[in-house]
């Protein structure tokens, strides 16, 4: 099949996080049929990572099989391929797989492909993959970077803020304590705070992702909570401390998943590849045993996680040559 057919078939396998088994089986079977040595690594509940190799890898392509919900089926026109995962990151996987086939057909060896589950919700697949024994020296991670080589990525920190109060009849709010109003005040303080900045990575940003609380309109709410996601420019421990200081004793701050900011290597592979800083996180901080990280991929993060997610066909084809050129340069490194 050609790269467009590969992308179409992989997109048509629904693989939202925690339901990646079908995509893993599809990739395992395809890569085995293409003559690569393939092993799988159980992550749990029918979910598994896929590691394919040709020789003993010193350069490995990597990306993730899972997508955010909801599932969106495949469609295409003359210029683009649409659907959930088109750019994040099934199109990326397609470009890497066809680059690997190109390398093999040109007589190269000692490279691999690592495709993991769970990147969109905690990176449990990458953490498990970090236990795999390997001699790898360079990890070319794939995410939609607008066909730029990343020089750095921000980290991430999830927190849940839980406020408590006291119920009362809503006609007499003075006899209760509103957890929702308390939470609103805290979130407003977070919005107004001057969070850390970095000369390269820029400003710390955040997203107030969910707000829940209360029982009924006629009851003063005794509980309220909010989930927030920070994109960090410093170690998550330091930012978590700042958040706790900002909240004080007004609420409980629970720490969730976090990853550190990463500085990536770039490679001069004979092509003019622009560089840039990526404000999103990746699996790279969880794959520390796989060598020096690089980050590159076709498609834009601005189209990921949207109802119109797509990847341009010309970018997909171009990425095959770029991935292959990057790998050949790294394979030739002493």
Question: What would you note in describing this structure?
Answer:
This protein is of the alpha+beta class. It folds into 2 domains: 3-153 and 261-331, Zn peptidases (Aminopeptidase); 155-259, Alpha-Beta Plaits. It has 7 helices and 18 strands. It has helices at 3-11, 21-33, 90-105, 124-129, 179-192, 236-247, 313-331; strands at 37-44, 47-54, 59-64, 75-76, 80-82, 111-116, 138-141, 149-153, 155-164, 197-198, 202-203, 205-213, 223-232, 252-259, 262-263, 275-278, 292-295, 310-312. The strands form 5 sheets. A 6-stranded mixed β-sheet has the order 1-2-6-3-7-17. Strands 12-13-9-14 form a 4-stranded antiparallel β-sheet. A hairpin with a 2-residue loop joins strand 1 and strand 2 (47-54). Helix 1 (3-11) runs antiparallel to helix 3 (90-105) and helix 3 (90-105) crosses helix 7. The longest helix has 19 residues, at 313-331. The radius of gyration is 22 Å and the shape is elongated. It starts with a helix and ends with a helix. The model has no long low-confidence stretch (mean pLDDT 97).
For the biggest sheet, the summary is: 6 strands, mixed
Task: Quote the beta fraction.
Answer: 25-35%
CATH architecture label of the largest domain: 3-Layer(aba) Sandwich
In which range does the helix fraction lie? 25-40%
Radius of gyration: 22 Å
- The CATH topology assignment of the largest domain is Aminopeptidase
Q: What shape does the CA trace take?
A: elongated
Poorly predicted sequence stretches spanning 5 or more consecutive residues: none
What's the count of strands?
18
Total of domains: 2
CATH superfamily of the largest domain: Zn peptidases
Strand arrangement in the largest pleated sheet? 1-2-6-3-7-17
Mean pLDDT: 97
> What kind of assembly state do the chains in view correspond to?
single chain
* N-to-C order of helices and strands: HHEEEEEHEHEEEHEEEEHEEEEEH
Structure classification: alpha+beta
Number of helices: 7
Distance between the termini: 35 Å
């Amino acid at each position: 099949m050609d790269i467009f057919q590969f992308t179409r078939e992989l997109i048509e396998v629904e693989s939202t996080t925690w339901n990646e088994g079908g995509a893993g089986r599809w990739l395992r079977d395809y890569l085995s049929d293409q003559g690569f040595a393939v092993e799988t690594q159980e992550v749990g509940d029918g979910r598994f990572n896929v590691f394919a190799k040709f020789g003993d890898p010193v350069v490995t392509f990597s990306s993730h099989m899972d997508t955010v919900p909801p599932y969106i089926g495949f469609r295409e026109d003359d210029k683009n391929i649409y659907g959930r995962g088109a750019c994040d990151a099934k199109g990326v996987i397609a470009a890497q797989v066809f680059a690997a086939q190109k390398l093999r057909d040109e007589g190269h060896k000692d490279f691999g492909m690592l495709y993991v589950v769970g990147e969109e919700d905690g990176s449990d697949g990458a953490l498990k993959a970090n236990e795999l024994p390997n001699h790898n020296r360079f990890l070319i991670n794939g995410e939609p970077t607008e066909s730029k080589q990343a020089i750095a990525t921000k980290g991430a920190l999830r927190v849940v803020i839980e406020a408590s109060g006291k119920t009362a009849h809503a006609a007499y709010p003075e006899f209760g304590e509103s957890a929702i109003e308390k939470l609103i005040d805290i979130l407003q303080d977070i919005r107004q705070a001057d969070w850390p900045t970095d000369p390269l990575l820029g400003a710390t940003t955040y997203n107030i992702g969910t707000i829940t609380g209360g029982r009924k309109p006629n009851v003063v709410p005794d509980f309220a909570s909010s989930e927030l996601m920070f994109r960090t420019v410093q170690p998550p421990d330091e930012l978590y401390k700042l958040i706790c200081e900002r909240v004080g004793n007004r609420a409980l701050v629970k720490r969730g998943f976090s990853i550190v900011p990463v500085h990536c290597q770039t490679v001069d592979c004979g092509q003019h590849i622009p560089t840039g800083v990526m404000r999103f996180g990746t699996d790279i901080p969880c794959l520390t045993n796989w060598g020096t990280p690089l980050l590159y991929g076709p498609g834009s993060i601005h189209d990921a996680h949207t109802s119109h997610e797509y990847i341009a066909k010309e970018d997909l084809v171009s990425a095959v040559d770029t991935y292959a050129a990057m790998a050949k340069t790294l394979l030739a490194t002493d």
